[in-house]
Amino acid sequence: LEPVPSPVQGVGPIYRPEAEKPAATVSKAVSYDNVHVLPQTPQLIALLTMIRDKKTTRADFIFYSNRIIRLLVEEGLNHLPVIEHPVTTPVGRTYLGVKFQGKICGVSIMRAGEAMEQGLRDCCRSVRIGKILIQRDEETCKPKLFYEKLPSDIAQRWVLLLDPMFATGGSATLAVEVLKAKGVPEEHILFLNLIASPSGVADFAERFPSLRVVSAFIDQGLDEKKYIIPGLGDFGDRYYTL
Ligand code: PRP
Ligand code: URA
């Protein structure tokens, strides 16, 4: 099946007339209530352009990926519950604010997901982080679980599951099954990823309807090797070894 191209839209600041905005490919829209795509702002599209470019150096790939990861974490935190929290300001007035309710932890799908840990730590000081080592078999593209080490009280926490690439969805599905087997309710899991395939998102959203997904971009599709297209290639290789 030929992938349906993603929409092209004029991207730029709102004060600029539509005709003067440069054309850029933006994320496909999604029709699942539990899947949230970051707003396709000029900033996000410029950052994604950097990391998709095969000419981008490893140093730049790390720097620009980290910026997108920070945006994803900030948006992910918006999906956690808050309670009212009034405070008194230094001028003696009350400000009716909120604070987060409950405990969280991160869980990274190794290796590429570990790249997202610092972005989470930057927002949530001393956050606990669990690890699940899942690797896709290079021939079959099926995920294989090798190792997991998770906080002992994970069933009582909200879990931010971290993996930049969401292709067939096999790795993320296996990770969610590990979390559910440890007693984490599906509705307490938020899966943060940079680039997703439409089929991965659809299968996952239907399988886990109460789990939330936050993605920076839903791409066109998958190639014959189950790589996301246009994608960015192998995230782990570009971040860690190339
Ligand atoms: C990549 C990526 C995801 C998975 C996505 O990891 O980081 O974990 O593939 O593919 P899927 O949705 O089809 O399962 P990979 O297994 O290549 O290992 P890496 O993290 O060491 O690069
Ligand atoms: N893993 C990656 O790093 N990239 C893809 O496109 C698919 C799986």
TrEMBL record:
<keyword id="KW-0021">Allosteric enzyme</keyword>
<dbReference type="GO" id="GO:0008655">
    <property type="term" value="P:pyrimidine-containing compound salvage"/>
</dbReference>
<keyword id="KW-0547">Nucleotide-binding</keyword>
<feature type="domain" description="Phosphoribosyltransferase">
    <location>
        <begin position="39"/>
        <end position="240"/>
    </location>
</feature>
<keyword id="KW-0342">GTP-binding</keyword>
<comment type="similarity">
    <text>Belongs to the UPRTase family.</text>
</comment>
<dbReference type="GO" id="GO:0004845">
    <property type="term" value="F:uracil phosphoribosyltransferase activity"/>
</dbReference>
<keyword id="KW-0808">Transferase</keyword>
<protein>
    <recommendedName>
        <fullName>uracil phosphoribosyltransferase</fullName>
        <ecNumber>2.4.2.9</ecNumber>
    </recommendedName>
</protein>
<comment type="pathway">
    <text>Pyrimidine metabolism; UMP biosynthesis via salvage pathway; UMP from uracil: step 1/1.</text>
</comment>
<dbReference type="InterPro" id="IPR029057">
    <property type="entry name" value="PRTase-like"/>
</dbReference>
<dbReference type="GO" id="GO:0005525">
    <property type="term" value="F:GTP binding"/>
</dbReference>
<dbReference type="InterPro" id="IPR000836">
    <property type="entry name" value="PRTase_dom"/>
</dbReference>
<dbReference type="Pfam" id="PF14681">
    <property type="entry name" value="UPRTase"/>
</dbReference>
<keyword id="KW-0328">Glycosyltransferase</keyword>
